[in-house]
C-alpha cells in the first residue's frame, strides 16, 4: 500500500493504478463502517484509493476542529488489511494551497436538517469532495448511507456539475444492539451509549410521531425526526427516508432508516 502525502506523490501513484478505480473518502478515526466502504470499493473496482483528511472547511464556528480524533497509524493498518492500494493523507496546506475564494454551494439542500444546525457545513463538504475527486480521478466513489444528507448533496453536485464519476451508497453498519457506527461514539460514556440507542429505536417505529414520543423525559435532546425525500431532503409524508438527529450528553448523533430499497440508486456519468 502506498501512502501519498503530496499532490505529486498521489499523481504518481494514481498513474500506476490499472482498471476501474474507486475512491473512499474519510476523515480518519476509522471503524468497521469505513472498513465496509473499503470492502465495497474492492468488490466494485480493480484499484482502491482512500483519503484521510480532516477538512477544516466543514467545521463551524462552534465546532472544535482540534478535538476531532486523529488515529492515522491504526487507520492505515485498517486500510492495508482491506486491500487498499493508495492512501492520500494530505495536510490542509496541500489541499488548500491558498484560502479558497471559489467554493461549492449545496443550495437549498444544504440549509435544512443538518445544514440548519451546521450552517455552511455542506458547502465545505462539497468543496473538498470535488477537489478530492479531481485529485484522485476515480471511476466510482463510495459513501456511507449513514450520512444520508451528505450523500444526497454529493449526488446532486455530481449530477449538476457533470462530474464523471458514479456515486454508490453503502448501507449503514451497526453494532449488534442497533447503534450506528460513528467516530463520535467514542465520546459517549457507558450510560450515554445506552441512551444513544434511542435513535435506532425511534427509527424502528418507522413513524416520526411515535419515534419522537420515545424521547419524552429521556436524557437526550431530540433535534429532528422526520420523513423526507432521500434525493431532495424535503420533508414529505410519503418520503422514502426517516432521518433523526439528537444530542446525547455533549455528543450530536445522526442516523436514518431507508423506508424503501435505496440500493439501486446510483449515479452514472
Explained architecture:
There is one protein chain. The chain has helices at 7-15, 32-44, 72-81, 92-95, 114-117, 121-136, 148-160, 190-204, 208-213, and strands at 2-4, 21-26, 47-52, 86-88, 140-144, 166-170, 221-228, 241-248, 251-258. With 269 residues, the chain is α/β, with parallel strands linked by helices. The chain folds into two domains: 2-170, Rossmann fold, CATH 3.40.50.620; 183-256, 2-Layer Sandwich (Pantoate--beta-alanine Ligase, Chain: A,domain 2), CATH 3.30.1300. The strands form two sheets. It has a six-stranded parallel sheet with strand order 1-4-3-2-5-6, sandwiched between helices. Helix 7 links the parallel strand 5 and strand 6.
- Which architecture name of the largest domain does CATH use? 3-Layer(aba) Sandwich
Return the string of H and E elements: EHEHEHEHHHEHEHHEEE
- This entry's quaternary arrangement is single chain
What structural category do the secondary elements indicate? Answer: alpha/beta
Unreliable stretches (pLDDT < 50, length at least 5) are 262-269
Full CATH superfamily name of the largest domain: HUPs
Strand content: 15-25%
Q: Could you tell me the radius of gyration in angstroms?
A: 18 Å
Specify the overall morphology: globular
Query: What fraction, in percent, of the residue positions are helical?
Result: 25-40%
N- to C-terminal distance:
28 Å
Could you give the order of strands across the largest sheet?
1-4-3-2-5-6
CATH names the topology of the largest domain as Rossmann fold
Give the count of helical stretches. 9
**Largest beta sheet, briefly?**
6 strands, parallel
Amino acid at each position: 500500500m502506498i501512502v501519498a502525502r503530496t499532490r505529486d506523490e498521489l499523481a504518481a501513484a494514481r498513474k500506476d493504478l490499472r482498471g476501474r478505480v474507486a475512491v473512499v473518502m474519510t476523515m480518519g478515526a476509522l471503524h468497521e463502517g469505513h472498513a465496509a466502504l473499503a470492502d465495497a470499493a474492492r468488490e466494485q473496482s480493480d484499484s482502491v484509493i482512500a483519503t484521510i483528511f480532516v477538512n477544516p472547511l466543514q467545521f463551524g464556528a462552534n465546532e472544535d476542529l482540534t478535538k476531532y480524533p486523529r488515529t492515522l497509524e491504526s487507520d492505515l493498518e485498517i486500510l492495508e488489511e482491506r486491500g487498499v492500494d493508495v492512501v492520500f493523507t494530505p495536510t490542509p496546506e496541500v489541499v488548500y494551497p491558498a484560502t479558497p475564494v471559489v467554493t461549492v454551494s449545496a443550495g437549498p439542500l444544504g440549509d435544512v436538517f443538518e445544514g440548519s444546525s451546521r450552517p455552511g457545513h455542506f458547502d465545505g463538504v462539497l468543496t473538498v469532495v470535488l477537489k478530492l475527486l479531481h485529485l484522485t480521478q476515480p471511476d466510482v466513489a463510495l459513501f456511507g448511507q449513514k450520512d444520508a444528507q451528505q450523500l444526497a448533496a454529493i449526488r446532486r453536485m455530481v449530477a449538476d456539475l457533470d462530474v464523471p464519476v458514479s456515486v454508490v451508497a453503502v448501507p449503514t453498519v451497526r453494532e449488534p444492539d442497533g447503534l450506528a457506527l460513528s467516530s463520535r461514539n467514542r465520546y459517549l460514556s457507558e450510560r450515554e451509549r445506552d441512551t444513544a440507542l434511542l435513535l435506532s429505536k425511534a427509527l424502528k417505529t418507522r413513524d416520526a410521531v411515535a419515534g419522537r414520543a420515545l424521547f419524552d423525559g429521556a436524557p437526550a435532546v431530540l433535534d429532528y425526526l422526520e420523513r423526507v425525500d432521500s434525493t431532495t431532503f424535503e420533508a414529505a409524508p410519503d418520503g422514502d427516508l426517516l432521518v433523526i438527529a439528537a444530542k446525547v450528553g455533549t455528543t450530536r448523533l445522526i442516523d436514518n432508516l431507508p423506508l424503501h430499497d435505496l440500493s439501486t440508486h446510483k449515479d452514472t456519468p
